[in-house]
Amino acid sequence: MTARAASALDMAWGSPPDAADLVQEAVAWHFDPKTGSEFWLERAKSLDFDPRKDVRTVDDLTLFPNIVDELRDIRLESLVPKGYQALGIDSAPVVGESGGTTGTPKRVFVLPDVREQSWSWYYDRLTEHGVTPGANWLGVVPAGPHMVGSLARDTAARFGGIFFTLDLDPRWAKGCVARGAVDELKAYVNHLVDQMEWILQSQDIGILAITPPLLEAVCTRDHLVDLINEKVATITWSGASMDEDTRQLLRSEVFPKANIVGIFGSTMIFCGIPERPGTPDGEPAVFDPPSPFSMFSVIDPETGENVPYGERGQVVSHHITRNLFLPNNLERDVATRHPHGRGYTGDAVSEVKPVQEFGDTKVIEGVY
């Protein structure tokens, strides 16, 4: 490795290292008996290659099996690298769970160094969209085990705003969809929108973080649309997918004065990715990940090969940090492939939508 690679795992996400340097340092860390996690050290015994010798580039990450389904049951302690104790980073991990869209939730964690990098990178991307300090936030997003709630709360604090939120359980909504309880789901959505209304009526809210299904539910109440147009300068949407016709309608007609910013995120890549700034009206939102710490490929799932730019395929993600090593994860999403907007390794994605079925499980978005 080059001299630069000696600190690749600790470089700022906004000033990233060479991708090959990061990959090589990551496998050296995660597969060294002195620093690696119990999970990967044990898994290495069954691999038909030696990660520390044979994995040198981003392309080599596809040698690894996709292990994320195992995150539904793995003891969390077994995932924490032993080397953190020597670094003096010994605070308890913050645990995050996936939304349960493809079955039992998957579980990951983050320690302070990577959390700071991810949250700081997200803050910087929002400033590129003109978000400025001082405004209060309303988070209409899941909290509890869902990292998006922590991200929204901490980002509001970074911008110097008060954070308001509400009770939102996306798993209950998914359950309603799964059992065909349409009236129950409508009642729950109305309950969520009522909570929004109570806050918006009495508080100065400048930034609204919300999911697409709930933003569409807001649009059924004209007085609430008027209230948002009066108060809110920026709307961020994340969680469930949003089709392009809806996105353009919201931007041009329903909330014409608001800065509407799409966010793509995944628990398995441990970051929220704001859309590329400056996208013209009529063009889809494009999401550039913080490569090489989190990278995307868009592939033909039948062949495993990248689809051409501008074509659609299934998303594969790699998360490569000192905290976690999660390579070669076939995501539940399909997307259009683009070159990374900053010229970094890996792909950018647009028009992200879930597959209808993932493995043997029907994919349900619900309200998140």
Features:
6-stranded mixed β-sheet, alpha/beta, 368 residues, single chain, 11 helices, 5-stranded antiparallel β-sheet, disordered N terminus
Structural notes for this entry:
The chain has helices spanning 19-30, 38-43, 51-54, 83-87, 112-128, 147-158, 170-178, 182-202, 212-218, 222-231, 244-254; strands spanning 94-97, 107-110, 137-140, 163-165, 207-210, 234-237, 259-266, 271-274, 286-287, 294-299, 312-320, 325-339, 347-354, 357-358, 361-362. The protein is an alpha/beta fold and 368 residues long. It has a domain at 3-87. The chain has a 6-stranded mixed sheet with strand order 4-3-5-6-7-8, sandwiched between helices. A 5-stranded antiparallel sheet has the order 9-13-12-11-10. A two-stranded antiparallel sheet has the order 1-2. A hairpin with a 4-residue loop joins strand 11 (312-320) and strand 12 (325-339).
Topology overview:
Elements lengths: L18 H12 L7 H6 L7 H4 L28 H5 L6 E4 L9 E4 L1 H17 L8 E4 L6 H12 L4 E3 L4 H9 L3 H21 L4 E4 L1 H7 L3 H10 L2 E4 L6 H11 L4 E8 L4 E4 L11 E2 L6 E6 L12 E9 L4 E15 L7 E8 L2 E2 L2 E2 L6
Parallel strand pairs: 3-4, 3-5, 5-6, 6-7
Antiparallel strand pairs: 1-2, 7-8, 9-13, 10-11, 11-12, 12-13, 14-15
Helix pairs in contact: 5-6
Short recap of the structure:
The chain has eleven helices and 15 strands.
